## 1
Amino acid sequence: MKVTIEAIGVVHSCYREKFGIPRQPGLVKSAKGAVELLPPCNREEMFKGLESFSHIWLQFQFHEAVADGWRPTVRPPWLGGQKRVGLFASRSPHRPNFLGMSVVRYLGLRKEEGRLFLDISGLDLLHGTPVFDIKPYVPYSDRVADAASGFVQCSENRVAVCFTPVAEEACRRYEEEKGRELKALIREVLEQDPRPASQRQKQREYGMLLWEMNVRWLAEEECFTVLSVTEQ
């Protein structure tokens, strides 16, 4: 059976490439973006009452995974990228329909130049992600207090992050010009250690795009050092 669905919105995100995106929503509080609503769902009355909710569910497609196809088993990063589990025991983007869902903080509705946006934060979504549905998050039923999380265990250990004077100054200038908290975003992303599991024993330099800025950082055993922040 085949079902055809159309996107009701598209994500504008601080994440411009897959590398650096946190593995789950809510881990990087400073990650901000918006869902631009598409016709016929770009009508303000469709969101009346949503302002009373702090969080929303977004159902979307991992659109950049489609070309790679899906896989029956995967190697989750939680298991060091070495052990295989069944696809449906994971949250891999390489799924038969490439569908995902995330809980994000809802910041409000915004109209700009005739376009309608839902401002959000704590997102884990790539720029350009198509959104298929939006629902309010309801804690009394959506949160399960005694749920078991299998091999997925939350770690409180965060990587130490420091900035060179050059990177610090670049962040300050960017924040003054754009009004975005770039330094906090960089710090929170790197604290999660975005490196693939197979590279976590290596000391090397990495790069990632956040908003339109190219962030270069050095992964060392004791600390991740942000070397430079330059416009792409």
## 2
Amino acid sequence: MNSNWKNALLTHLAVLTVSGTDAAQFLQGQITCNVHEVTATHSSLGAMCNPKGRAITTFLLAKSGDDFLLILPVELLETVKKRLSMYVLRSKVTLTDCSDSLCLLGFTATLTDAFLASYQQDGVVRINVGNRDLVIADEHNASVILAQGVETIDSMHWQTLDILGGIPWLTTATSEQFIPQMLNLDKLGGISLTKGCYTGQEIVARTHYLGKAKRALFVAECETATPEANASIIDANGQIVGNVLSANDDKLLIVLQLAETDTTQLQLKDYHHASLTLLTKEHS
């Protein structure tokens, strides 16, 4: 096996497969993005919400044949699987944890169609993430792809690039804390306002049409601390004005009150008041 095998795996993410003749209809009623727009070559960010419109998890949704692949944080996979199972009822849907059968590989550059052509026939799925590619493959194909010597990204590096790219991932600490708009999913194409009803849809739609989202996602930097998810952010007066969504090295994604984006006094409350610097200063 290739010596870079372990370093190439994105071990912080997992794959939950949704299969069966009713898979598309079932998912359409549970998630924020439009399932019918996802194809073998087009993926989508999205969220699964509770009835109050709070995101239980965010994910990347891809398609392999007739199956849908939810790429989501490992630590939320069982929670999401159990929650989705509650809604299956008589639908012809099967939920499968594919952690042991599928590998997630991160690449520092987009891979050419010619490079992947021989593997895609065997169910290899490629998801483009900006100037990177995430590839889902079984162990055999993953090993063959890695043997070609293409530069890979390990989990830590991938997480940092996701933070810099403003891609929101939740944890057990932040699950069910934020509506999708607070995570910028509307700006990232992860919310469909025309697809019809889904769990939490009323709150998500109301927030959009009434313009009531008072918090949004920003990229920040902290050179002196790497906080835990959901750590509190305070202003110069000691008032809590936001929370950390994720952090890696000195880069952070934070959910911040929109009125606080011009301040230069943001600090981490429980980290010796370590100062934050916003790298994105406007919510577009």
## 3
Amino acid sequence: MVILAMDTATDQLSLALGRDSGEVLASWTSAVPKMHATLFHPLLDQMLAAVKVSLQDVGAVVVGVGPGSYTGVRIAVTAAKVFSYTLNIPVVTVSSLEAAAYAARAHQGLVIPAWDARRHAAYCAAFRSDPYEQAWERALPDGRREFSQLVQEVLEVAREDEKVWLLGNSASSIVDFFRQKGEDGIVGVYDERTLLSGELIFRVGLRAIQKQPDLITTQGMWESVHDLVPNYVQMAEAQARLLPDRQGG
């Protein structure tokens, strides 16, 4: 079965095609910010043509639901819902943060993806990686945290002598907060880029499917597609500014 993976939660537009056997047919990424809506369908058409696959061959969609750009994340989620309705196929949702973190799965320790959320805060989560045991588990939920709060929560869940790997455009700033706690010896920067490829979305989605094979059946998934929404984590700034005005009115 062919699986289509997609994500538009960051400045990267990420697409991939793979099989449920784990074979990756194609993985395409565009790093042109604020052009996801314009480029999504042309790039998808090109990718499908390049590997001689049609949309009718796709048996399931994996989509990153954020957190991330309030406007951007909706593009892939909306497309996934449209494909589900028109092709009568299931949608499997994954955390965009987890997919980014999965790039560092070969490293032992806690992997912390952290994307700038402004005002000394980050969209972040934590995952425990053990490549020797081929283990991968969540240690902290997705959320928006101030840097100091993130460091405190990481220190609470970290095991003795466990290494902490940061990735994303807030990584270096967060290292400074570990230093203030005297814990900079346990932390390292894996990469300051987002590293969110279509293949990573596919890999994390495939893990979910393999752990729960019934996810890939239409029965039981169809109703949830109606309620599928991005994980915004927080309201958009414009909404947040309007709320007090409405409450006051």
## 4
Amino acid sequence: MNKTILITGSTDGIGKLAAIKLAKDGHEIYLHGRNAQKLDTVISEIKTQTNNPQIKGFVADFSDLAAVQQMAAQVNQEVSKIDVLINNAGIFKSPLATNKDGLDIRFVVNYFAPYVLTKALLPLLKKGNAPRLINLSSAAQAPVSPDALAGKIQIGAQAAYAQSKLALTMWSFQLAKQLKDITVIAVNPGSLLNTNMVREAYGKYWSSADKGGNIIYDLAVSDEYEGVKGKYFDNDKGEIKGVFGPAHSDAYDEAAIEELIRATDRVLS
């Protein structure tokens, strides 16, 4: 059965690779990018490559939470349901450490933006057919500093990235308990994949970007993962492909999760 799938950060990297694979299967794909011209180019490219005319897109700069809210409103107007929401957009290195609100850009793009977008799109997900929410985490996870989250102190790019990814994982686990009929999976798509983000950050890579694109595809549509709730998929483990494994211990600490959500809502209010 064809699905309606929204993938954030899908004009390059593993998001784009997953979009191409899903489009080849005939699914209706909504891409997202921050640059309208690049988004249009990628939509045309995927339509041609896959012979699938059902490729559309939305533009938003995820470092601007007002833009995220505007995109969410547009999605709610234009899309009747979402079967799979893939929160893939992410950032590590950036010429700007903070956004216009003084928040660390990694926390904003990697955690606050998917938090805001997902909450706004839950009505569409609940209308979906066996809906799934896939949140792109990372092997890099570190305890979240409430002061760093709120922009009261500045920390390094590596620390902010790792904290933002643990925050995303903790929130994923909380959502999984709240959302009875939605599959929720946090995934490390693989460490040091050959993507622009990794090359800019480290200047080297370990694995093909296809490793990440393929696991996003699998988690989005494979029957194997239907009904999975609040688990962490580690694509660095396993022999043929990744396996479910332990996330950072804070992801299982209910008090820490409650504190994170309270701090998050304070920042967003």
